[in-house]
Structures are given as structure tokens and as C-alpha cells.
Amino acid sequence: MGRFLLGRITGAGIVLLLKSFVIFALIGLMPGDPLDLMMNANPETTPEQMAHLRAMYGVDLPITQRYWTWLVAALQGDFGYSRIQHRPVLDIIIPALGNTLILTGAAFVLSTTLAVTLGTIAALKRGTWIDRIINLFAFAGISVPSFWLGLLMIYLFAVRLGWLPAGGMPRPEQGYGGMLAHLAMPVMTLVIVETGGLARYARAAMIEVLSQDYIRTARAKGLTDRRMLVRHALRNALIPVLTLVALQLGGLFSGAALTEAMFAWRGMGRLILEAILGNDYNLALVCLMFVTATILIANICADIAYTWLDPRISLGKRRR
């Protein structure tokens, strides 16, 4: 296990290093760097002043040298300043990361639990009206765009019924009640969108497991349906589902950009969108690196969870 974790952490570090260079290069090659935007905002800036600013900020250096300067500073904890907000990047990302963890964490737990439950019920009731209703819900969740669903919820629950706030962040004096009220619609939007595909995978995996010989043997030995389902079928069916869950966890950090923007939730998704649209290079780069790190960590955790679900899986050992 130790050798496996060391190898995966080393591989994740290499992936982060390569992706940081690719993102840095792509952002650096985009037309209109911050100094160009500064010059457009102040037409009185002379070419000599621009040349002096480019030399001072190192923008005139080759892309590889600029990347090395950024990497050395980043390894020391200095990720630069935001061009738009004029603050250190980490001071902006940490609050947004906390807000995203609250939103996407709640959506992730609810969507995963709901999807596995619905997929299991659909597999056990295969071909019945219950299976058809669950499949209809799953296909609706896959097909409905998140922005349309969010607008529908705002119109229904905020405008027509007035039960929930249309968006924004809760004020400190509102307490947990205000937090839940502001989280309700964005969490519901993400849960409905994420549950559909995962429920279909859970259903397919459970149907495949229920047709295995060891399940028929367990039933022949007189095991109750509940014990057979929990001890044998569900644990094996979760192995392929877990891979998709790990990918969805990382995708929620960046995929919630539309939902966060629609409900004015100040999280990582909205921050990435604003940084890219505003050509805020340092902020966009570090945000994208956080998303990559989240996906890599989620996949490592999924590999470790495989050994818990199926003891036959041994990490870091070769069979002879």
C-alpha cells in the first residue's frame, strides 16, 4: 500500500507539473496580456513606458523562463496577485474554495446516495413500473440543462411561491436557517443533474452483479435478500460506480460554474469563469490547478476504496 501511494502521489505531482506548464503556456499565448489591457484603458501610455513595464514584470521574457519564475515562487507559497481584485491569489481562492466545498459537498453526498439507491431499486424491480419511473427520472436529469433547471427553480420557488431566496450568499446573522435557504435551489439543481447518469451506471452494475453465480449460491444457502444485497451484491456493484463518482467529484468544482453564477454563489466555479473572462492570468491558473488536484486526489481515494469494497483487490502487489 505504501509503495502504491508513493507511486500515485509521484504521478499526481508529475501531472500537476505538466498541466501547470500547459495552462501557463496557453494563457500566456492568449492575445491581450494584462499590460495590453492597461494600455487600452490609458491611451496616453507611451511605447517607452510599456516597454519599461514589460521589462519590470518580465512579460518580455520567453514563456519557459516566465514559467520557471512562476513555479519557483509557487513552490514557496507565492502564487501571485489577482489583476482584477488586486489581492493575493490565495486570499481570494480560500474563501471561494470553502463556499464550493459547502455547495458541491452537499450536492455530491446527496446525488451519490440518491443515485445508488435509485439504481439498486431499479435493478431489483427490473421491468416493472418502478424501474420505468426511475429510468424516466434518470433520463430527465441527463437531458435537462443545468441553467434551464436553475431558472425554472428560481421562477417557481422564488418568484411564484416566494419560499426561497433567488440567490446570493447568506448573511452571518441569518445563521444555519439562512444557509440552508440559500443552498436549497443550487443543491437541488446539481443533485438532479448529477443523479441521472450515476443512477443508470448503478442500475447496470447491479443487474450484472445479480446475475453472477455467487449471488445465486448465496440465495440457495438461505441468505435473506437484505443480507445478500448489502454483504455481496452492493459492495461488488459499487466498484465500477466508484470510478465515475471520483470523476464527478472533481467535475463538480468546475462544472458548477453555471449554477454558481446563476444563483450568485461565490464559489470556485464562478471564480474560474470570472478569472477567464477578465484575463486574470494568475487567478485562472491557480483555480484550474486546484480543480486538477481535486480530480487526482479523488481518484487516489477511489483506488484505496476498491480494497475496502473487494478484499481480493491488492494495491501495489503483482500476481505471479
Key structural traits:
globular, single chain, 77% helix, 0% strand, MetI-like fold, mainly alpha, 320 residues
Plain-language structure description:
This protein is an all-alpha fold. It has 13 helices and no strands. Helix 10 runs antiparallel to helix 13 (281-309).
Question: Can you summarize this structure?
Answer:
Helix content is 77%, strand content 0%.
Cα end-to-end separation: 18 Å
Total DSSP E strands: 0
In DSSP terms (H or I, runs of 4 or more residues), the helix count works out at 13
Helix-strand pattern, N to C?
Answer: HHHHHHHHHHHHH
* Biggest sheet layout: none
Shape: globular
Low-confidence stretches: none
CATH topology of the largest domain: MetI-like fold
Identify the CATH class of the largest domain.
Answer: Mainly Alpha
Helix content: over 70%
- Rg from alpha-carbon coordinates: 24 Å
Determine the structural class based on helices, strands and strand pairing: mainly alpha
Named at the architecture level, the CATH assignment of the largest domain is: Orthogonal Bundle
Average pLDDT value?
77
How many structural domains in the coordinates?
2
Q: Please identify which CATH superfamily of the largest domain we are dealing with.
A: MetI-like
Helix-strand layout with pairing:
Layout: H1 2-29, H2 34-41, H3 47-57, H4 63-75, H5 89-124, H6 129-143, H7 146-160, H8 175-210, H9 213-220, H10 225-255, H11 257-262, H12 268-277, H13 281-309
